[in-house]
User: Fold this.
Amino acid sequence: MWVTLALALVACAAPSHPSSDRLLVLLPGEPLQVDPRHVVDAQGLRISRLLFQGLVSIDPHTLEVRPELADSVEPSADGTVYTVVLREGLTFSDGSRLDADDVRATFESVVDPATGSRFAENYRRIARIDTPDPSHVIFTLREPHAPFMTDLELPIVRREDASAHLALADGLVSSGPYLVEHVQGRVYDLDARADWHRGRPAHPELRFVVIRDDNTRALRLLAGAGDVALSSLPPLLIPMFVDDPHFVVTTAEGTGTVYLGMELEHPPLNDVRVRRAIAMAIDRVSIAEGKYGGLASIAETWIPVGHWASDPSITVPPFDPQAARVLLREAGVPEGTELVLRCASDRTRVSTARAIASMLSSVGLSVEVRSSETGILLADLDDGRFDLALMAVPELLEPHAISRFFDSRSIPGGPTGGANRWRFRSDELDRALDEGVRAVGIPARRAAYLTVQRILARELPVVPLVHERVVVVSSTRAALAEAPRDGRYGFLTE
Assistant:
């Protein structure tokens, strides 16, 4: 109904862009954080990486590590020492020099308890950081750690800001391609830095506008009041833009996973038979086709398709509601057992959650769907106020990131923090994760992470559902040739 109305509103005139030269990027929600030492939400991560950059970055198409602020990174033969040479002429957005002392201050601040970074555990393996001169940084690790090259993607802040909690506000000093020009309510203006080390970004002025309603966001695009929507339109609405000559739609295989998590300390979910029955009751093909319009692939694990650690032999129990019902009865689960399914408040998540609830009702489970804003949702999950949770990890480029969600040392409220909200505990898994970071070379690391994936497939603390494709809807003045697999805004600089 609303689609017909939208088409009628825009049929008489082609989109007319605002007089401002600012490229208008439409967001589905506010970024919760932009400080790179704290950011965990998708919107915050994407904007943060326009403002701050690390010693290395991830190629958005090949997903390979490449030098960024570093001119070179050389590991020692035993993998315990990494020597970084910084590019010449690096500066922050205030014109001050970015040098080795800023790098050291950033990494030291992450592990400082006063900072309270969620990523502190990743960097406690650094035994010492030496800065013999402004251009060299030498990291000495306590033991070999295979993912450390990826860990160097941690964006750098000024040494003066290392003890502060950085917010998206006027005057924020950045190290990346853009600086904050002005923030007012849910509108964030960023300006390109002429002194960025890769040269002035392609789009000199950006305006990010938060529009929570999916329909309004689509209408803004159709009316010419928006230029870019990155994975922020419901799949059902994408066909409206495919044949419109004023827009370009590009897609790419995503690196994230939509999944159903379970609170293992809540009976009957502490019984693996129940978790397996839930997996068998969910028709993931119907979800991929019906809720994502084919813009998603079936997920068997959290490892993206084509990744060096992926293995097609690892699978989720197939859709079989009759077998699921039998398994629930064998586990002693009464007909009509009530469960609460939590999810974010955006349209696609709520719709998918309701579909899952309906599927589970067909095997005798009564599921109530409760949606919340992201901040509230994450706080409740950390505190265990849920039975089931429909969630998404936006990207997984380095397999070691799995540890943050499943290592028994990563349970919220514990000494190291983390996102193991399922309260999953497995000594076997912890050992495999430890082996994955100690192993030298891709074959040895792959073997460790195959073990990790097999344990998760067997114990099912979460059920992988789909890998969402990255979908970029852009106006012709912002058109790009290829969507980024990493799902970030780096293409705006090209």
In short: The first helix runs from residue 2 to 10. The chain has 15 helices and 19 strands. The mean pLDDT is 92. The two ends are 38 Å apart (CA to CA).
